Fold each of these.
Amino acid sequence: MKDENFFEQVRAVARQIPYGRVTNYGAIARALGSAQSSRMVGWAMHAAHVGPDVPAHRVVNRQGLLTGKIHFGSPHEMQRRLEAEGIKVKNDKVIHFKELFWDPQTLAAG
DNA sequence: ATCTTGACCTAAT
DNA sequence: CATTAGGCCAAGA
């Protein structure tokens, strides 16, 4: 098992993101113990999109902005997936983001 | 091997 | 409230 890899940890958490929910890089980074490694989280996603099924579309930045939409092949692929889950998106930003926000620590706590 | 860029966040001024 | 600086780890040139 390569769970010791930072990427693997990010992927593991990303897969734990429930349906119709979204989270931000910082939250994941914190869950991994590296609150300041939020950048790595995004980079991990970049490597994750080529790996197993990782709901990277459920991961957005602190402002709920679909910053990584450009890496979904099409700049509307990410937004499209979010809307497919019932998540409304406007101006490439998740609506009610704070409401749909999901903290990975919540899972680790249980 | 070195420098720069990268799906970012937090703290300080 | 807006701007500036620091941090983290990895990949590309």
Amino acid sequence: MPTIHDIADLAGVSVATVSRVLNHTGRVSDKTRDKINAIIKQTNYVPNQAARTLYQKRSGLIGVIIPDLNNPFYADVVTAIDATLQQSGYRILLAVNTGANQTKYDESIAAFEQNNVDGIISSDFSITPTNTPTKPLVLFNSGLIDDNINRVVVDNYSGGQLAAKTLIKSGAQKVVIQHGPLSLPPIRERFEGAVAALTHAHLDYEIQLVSDFTLDAARSAAEALFTTFHDFDAVIAANDIHALTIAQQAQANQIKIPQALQIVGFDGSLYAEVSQPSLTTVDQHASTVGTTAGEFIVDLIKHHSSAAHPLRLVKPSVRLRESTMPQ
Amino acid sequence: MPTIHDIADLAGVSVATVSRVLNHTGRVSDKTRDKINAIIKQTNYVPNQAARTLYQKRSGLIGVIIPDLNNPFYADVVTAIDATLQQSGYRILLAVNTGANQTKYDESIAAFEQNNVDGIISSDFSITPTNTPTKPLVLFNSGLIDDNINRVVVDNYSGGQLAAKTLIKSGAQKVVIQHGPLSLPPIRERFEGAVAALTHAHLDYEIQLVSDFTLDAARSAAEALFTTFHDFDAVIAANDIHALTIAQQAQANQIKIPQALQIVGFDGSLYAEVSQPSLTTVDQHASTVGTTAGEFIVDLIKHHSSAAHPLRLVKPSVRLRESTMPQ
DNA sequence: CTGAAAGCGCTTACAG
DNA sequence: CTGAAAGCGCTTACAG
């Protein structure tokens, strides 16, 4: 691997001049610039990022922490972050924190600092950022919390409302609202939004707590749904996986969708799309979340942290499909 | 951020001694070691990786390139790579090369080199590694190619055989084999394995080419399947998404699964699991692929490239579920 | 067991 | 427009 000295020698100039050409900085005569560029091309020279980072204290790296790549929401977010960052010349240092383990989270933050990342994007799902990193930080997937931390949040309250309003418009009479642990702010907001909309419309509803978002949990929840509750004609599912298992259980029970049972999911994932019947769902716009988070962190780096508005909101929207009556 | 000089000053020793404590190298008296460690802890000192990388020419970073995070196969692979690498103290520099774009691929490789990665793990799916990187390289998801490049390959030929043998054992009479573009080695091997097993058993079969693995392609392929072919009682699907849409189309046509139609998928993804009925599939063991690739690259780095056996094989296995007759 | 010093490959004032 | 030199924060022979 050639160094900047090699290039300088070959061009018969000093390393300072080569550096100026590399960084498009300072004045360099066209002639020397062309000469240097030709040599760079021909030698396949690439500047050593470690040396740059050491001096400039910026690495061009962004640390990204997510709990689960198999969750299509996170997969979409990461894909969008990567596409956005690459446009600004940044690269992703990835940490998959399976199961949202606090120790692994802290280790990842430490490793990010050690690697001089310029910023950090992290999912806030059921994790507490302890010793706040010294780098610009953007959290996504958290609740609508006003604590002056930079966040990209999906408006879950509106999302819950949207799910409920969809069922109201399509003539549901009695709704079961599924929800996950209310200790998680996004879940709670979503739930409250749905309750508010149904109450406002004087619609009858019952609620079912589900333990988590694994397939197994969804299957037993779907089974419990039909044994525990009666006379309901619509469900706001905890998410798309739950919506899917409810649809399957309903079909096993010969319950017609959407005539006898309407279902609204939450996520906007592929699961809702591949299902038969396809499922109406509240789309969280994962890739918008990722793009927004990527742009946010780049802004923060450019303007030396401190955003005027630490909250960037992403509005969910409804994808109407076959599991609800036509509106 | 404190530097090694700050620690040395506080401890009243030289930076060399601090460095020795940091790296557990050389002889240091217990007393000074304890003192230095105490100060490190108390100041939250973390060594600057850029400085280390600059001197040692190793960064602790592994570049990883994959084409699609939404594909559960890749999601599993990356998750397993990350878990494996973290155990050895390495971190992932991620590049999502959506659509397997050759230019983006080359750019990512260049960025990896610039960042002094210690090794590269890349999916080989429909991409050609051009100017071979100077770093240890492990390719996965490629065909069984004997070109002395380090590869983790799923034995697709066996996979195809397994799919066919499963149907043979469960009494299928006429099979349709779906397959993607045969220009892709893994696809071709899979196809050839299935054909070989069916031929060997003197079973009748027909073949259907599918364009790709998107949901749309799968849907139209599934539709075409039932209009184009007749009298078949089993399908080896191009992958799990295709298997899923075939199952849905069959149900729409009132064809009973598995009595009137048996289906075998390929991937071992969640899609085959969430489906109703659940789908028998050939599991590629994505997380084994990831773990193997992670261990492979660590081995290569330790032993200065050049593996004795540049091919590490992962054996697929059948997951018997409801879409085939009990064996 | 410990320290002084060179050097890893860059960038950026500072001079000219 | 260009160069000599200092310095970013480490590690590792080399001396002692």
